[in-house]
Amino acid sequence: MSDALVIEAVRKTITVDCVVEEAFRVFTTDAINWWPLDSHSIHGSEVKEIVFEEREGGEIYEVTADGKQGHWASVLVWEPPTRVVLAWNILEREASPTEVDVRFTAEGKQTRVDLEHRGWEAVEEDGAAKRDNYHTGWDHVLGFYADRLG
Questions:
Q1: Is residue 118 part of a domain?
Q2: What is the spatial distance between Cα 4 and Cα 99, in angstroms, rounded to a whole number?
Q3: Within a domain: 3
Q4: Sheet (strand 83-88) strand order
Q5: pLDDT score, position 150
Q6: CATH number for 109
Q7: What pLDDT, on the 0 to 100 scale, is given for residue 123?
Q8: Which residues form the domain of 36?
Q9: What is the pLDDT of residue 124?
Q10: First vs last Cα of the chain: how many Å apart?
Q11: Contact status, residue 51 vs residue 59, Cβ threshold 8 Å
């Protein structure tokens, strides 16, 4: 029996009123128009752009008006319009990343979006507490996303 700590993944599911291609595009390359920057970014209201490099190995980062950058994640899997997986380490660039796996499934004229944020065992300090923060944080973020598509 292993003594390794297992921290449950954060799992969220929402349904948005648009086709899968639009849901994917807005989630990835249109985040500047819905992401709650004041509460969920590095530079807050100073952010003027969110760059999402649309390829495996691409980077996601914010840019301020004066050119400061803040790294959010790296793209591990890029499968438009159905899936994107990110090595997520916003605010902790030198730390081991967690993974955010987002899947988009067509359901008629709507799209189901399933988000799983996993790998909390790799977080060196307070992994369980950080996981709990993201559990509520993703509700907040996905609410803004759903409103943008509303």
A1: yes
A2: 18
A3: no
A4: 10-16, 110-118, 98-107, 83-88, 69-79, 59-64, 47-52
A5: 85
A6: 3.30.530.20
A7: 83
A8: 10-40+77-149
A9: 75
A10: 48
A11: yes
The number of angstroms, rounded, from the C-alpha of 23 to the middle of its chain's C-alpha atoms is 14
Q: Which amino acid is at 74?
A: S
- Tell whether 88 is covered by a domain: yes
How many domains in the chain? 1
How high is the pLDDT of residue 90?
A: 78
Amino acid at 136: T
Report yes or no: 18 and 110 within 8 Å, Cβ to Cβ.
Answer: yes
DSSP, residue by residue, the chain? -------PPEEEEEEESS-HHHHHHHHHHTGGGTS-TTTSSSSGGGEEEEEE--STT-EEEEEETT--EEEEEEEEEEETTTEEEEEE-TT-TTSPPEEEEEEEEEETTEEEEEEEEE-GGG-SS-HHHHHHHHHHHHHHHHHHHHHHH-
Query: Residues of the chain whose pLDDT is less than 70?
Result: 1-4, 91-94
